[in-house]
Input
Amino acid sequence: MTQTPIIELKNLNKTFGTGEEAVVALDDINISIYPGEIFGIIGLSGAGKSTLVRCMNLLERPTAGSVIFDGTDITSLSDKALRNIRRSIGMIFQSFNLLMQRTALDNVCFPLEIAGVPKKEAKARAKELLKTVGLADKEKAYPAQLSGGQKQRVAIARALATNPKVILCDEATSALDPTTTQSILALLKELNQRLGVTIVIITHEMKVIEQICNRVAIIDKSHIEEMGPVDEVFRHPRTQAAKKLIFPSGDVVEEVTGYGKLLRLVFDGNAANRPIIANMVLKCGSPVNIVFADTKRIDDKIYGHMIVQLPENEEKVRQILTYLDMEEIAYEEEEYDVQ
Amino acid sequence: MFSEGMFSLMGTGLLETLYMTVVSTVMAYLIGLPVGMILVVTDKEGIRPNPTINRIVGSIVNLLRSVPFIILLVAVMPVTRFIAGTTIGSTATVVPLVIAAAPFVARMVESSAKEVDRGVIEASLSMGASTLEVVLKVIIPEAKPSLIVGAAIATTTILGYSAMSGVVGGGGLGDIAIRYGYHRSQTDIMLVMVVILVLLVQIFQEIGNIIARKCDKRIR
Output
């Protein structure tokens, strides 16, 4: 990509505490996020992802390294200049963080109030935003009267109020049920396409990444382990951390006994429509044991993945691999979990 | 014994007590609210951590809080004379009442403000709010119900203190109770004063609770 990034993290380090009690939360993070994309950061809890997103608007000050927003290194800005920059970076949270003593409308007005927008103008804009997120009838409701999904919609409207270039989402759907999660993600995607706003999503759920992200970074133990387009990382995860997140099948593999090779197959788009495994069994005349199977939808394309246990006969294994090569199915040998 | 003169005496006493309580509470809040906010903001978990300021202000608050009111009442007499021109009467009593109540109010305010969800404060910072905006537009409005309950507690405490000032001729119901009830051994008068004080405490507390409930938008 030749575009200039909207957010660029360079050699970012964050250590909490000092001396022997120091805990490294982020270690040499380098990420470039480009305008208009939906960038996902996924990791298990404790991996440092929340600290990472908080560094992007300096809610958390990095110990070293720089945070460049739209060409400006914001780590060296004065408080006042930083507050101005923050108006171009909206943020939504897992626990919504709405002002409980203000109505939905007044919550959306809040960032405008801080930005010094005249009250009348702010109200009009807030009303329009509530309409955008589908809550035109909830203007006068207090957060306590709204459901989780509705609260998050208010929070999204609030984040959009100052016309930000970027919206940071910190586990924004983690407190929501699956259906509500879907609708919030669909809303974010719509806003991204309609307004061109860049979205950064922090999550521990692969489903969220699959559904709306263009690119993904996998963070594990304070490091970025892997980064790239979602379908690529999904098809060919290189690191153990990535595999663990993408194929939460470790438990299954653990319980499998025997000696046959374990093979992980990934079917992309059109292959998912053909009876690959059935044909393979018929053609090679050898049964395989299906250990794990799942299909995912990434960027509106269907991907299937499957773990099969091959027979011990080496000749049969060779036949099977040849067949898979012929069908252009990506495969990779999976280790038995020895623990 | 409940002659007409007695009734008018009681009326004056009631008014003096209300006067001392209300004026002292308002002034105690004028000092205590900002001091409480300084304690919250400079706390190590606050939005502008500053251990030095926090420790200095905290120590002054603790020091004043640990002096028993009856001793403070006498000890600050020179200050009282300087400010009020006299050490006797209701207006003079306001001075020690404020000195005693302001640190108490500061701690009440601090604890109410600490109940405000950290996430909400963080969200407002992410929107570019300044420290002052966070205090005025987020912490105080969000803590309002708790602050009002706190104010009711502070008012009743100050009411109790004001009765104590009768010992040094501070006026009000407490003064009457001590002069007639204690010095002249008219127990019935003392009892009446105590009953009125109890009623006042109940009324203030209940009003506070009702307002707090009414303005809290979290319960619906």
